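Hello forum,

I keep getting stuck at the same step: I have a sequence, I want structure tokens, and every attempt I make locally crashes halfway through. Rather than fight my setup again tonight, could one of you with a working pipeline run this one for me? It's a single chain of 616 residues.
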Amino acid sequence: MEEEMADIQITQLETAAIFKKTNLPVTLKFENVVYKIKPKKEGLFNSSSKPEEEKIILKGITGIVFPGEMLAMLGPSGSGKTTLLTGLGGRLSGRLAGSITYNGKPFTNAMKRYTGFVTQDDILYPHLTVTETLVFTALLRLPKTLSHEEKVVHAEAVISQLGLTKCKDSIIGGPLLRGISGGERKRVSIGQEMLINPSLLFLDEPTSGLDSTTAQKIVSTLWELVKGGRTIVMTIHQPSSRLFYMFHKVLLLSEGNPLYFGRGEDAMGYFSSIGYSPLVAMNPSDFLLDLANGVLDDPQEDQASVKQTLVTAFKTDLLDSVKEELRKFDDQQVHEKSHKGKFSQWSNTWWQQFSVLFRRGMKERKHESFSGLKIGQVLVVAFLCGLLWWQSKDIQDQIGLMFFYSGFWGFYPLFQAIFTFPQERMMLEKERSSGMYRLSSYFMSRTVGDLPMELVLPTIFVIITYWIAGLKPFALNFFSTLFTLLFSVLVSHGLGLALGALVMDQKSATILGSVIMLSFTLAGGYYVHHVPSFIAWIKYISISQYTFKLLIGSQFEAGETYTCGINTTCYVEDFPAIKSVGIGDKAISVVALAIMLVAYRLLAYVALMRIGVTKK
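Reply #2:
Ran it on my machine without issues. Output:
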């Protein structure tokens, strides 16, 4: 036992030591970076003959950051800080020009393994604890050469390194769920990237919304990480004086133009040398932001002319020295030190990713999936139906119940599924852009994870209503009804997934889903028996129509009779509601639903392929 404890302690010490030094020092070099976008047309009838002018977001940014240095990008809102950071992190889509190299090479899958990116918003699952969040991330991002226990030890080492030990068993929380503090959430986000021991770490406003003391702790943590030979680049909005002087280099931006690039401690001296110095002692970052906005102590000065003067001064006084620093950097020396091993695109196997994502999804969604509200809703509707159709022997009533089955269990799973992907879009974008897992493993884990509640609730519903309503008391009829309904639920759920993935907006997807399902219901063969030929095609793609036909087939067979008058019997296939949809050709309905089941989910998968992928 003592030997095992000693082994664990040695492993923890070795793991902690890993984070003290990076495996591959990375020099980030960017030269004349320009980013353009085409403005979107406003309005449906905006038909201008003039070609649209491209909007330039970044206007020739140049700089270099060496291992062991921390670069802070300052500037007012809209200056292009986040755009530049995203571009340097290899996550920017659109027209990005210029040269961005990492140890003299362009961004690759291999470099992605050494790169961490912390977004401004902490995108975390609210119901998971700090430990669970980091352990699941470790299981997904660390290579398969490490065992499960070693990955857990890595996560625990990060928790210790970032000072999260006190809150490691607390849930993350959210807007309506109390959890850890904002500073702790930010450290958890940083911890997720630290798990891979990154050589290059990007952070988008890591101190945003935090008090000065908490911000100081965050930057102090990053300062310790820099000592291990890491390259850290961050955007930051109005840091305190203490924080400002912790930055090795500062890049000041204004409307996409660079106004300063160099050592943080030299910034005030540079602006003083070109005639801009504060009248009173003040926070350097406040003064720099005033300059970036064109605001001086003299109100007579025009803001636009001040900005233009500063841009011109940078080009004449600073740009040459920055380019000289780039020229001094010898790419060849770094090439020799670069890691020459080949990387597979994924850290883990498909099955490992699937199992981890499945367990994480079940932990996070158990509060939502097995909520008392959903169960109560289905139970109330089930007993209400049972009472309304109490031991009904009338053929019209029984057919009405079958159609209600197809209608209710068409709409209910559709609207449950529509919200699935829009709610997880930000998480999916974050994790896919980090190369954390295959889309197929995520999609399958989500599909399988949703099956229990997809199938349990309609099963309970059928068990209650079937026997109370007095439908045929035979096992074959019961299971035929049950399996038909479950089949229909899976198809409707697939349609909801596809709509949500295509539109990615909950409100728009809900409206679209309502219109589509209502069209399917109206063409289902219950309300309208003689559909005009020019619109009859809807019934061939209607989930409700095929489900209704199979449900009728589960209760009635050709040749059966029913009482249609005094001492008169008629064949069930001649009953108007049954005659309009037919009682045979069950195989066609099964095949049609099977095609829809596959097609809708395939459509959802294809629609998700665009999420989290940088377009070139």
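The CA atoms of residues 158 and 285 lie 31 Å apart. If your local run keeps crashing, start a new thread with the error log.
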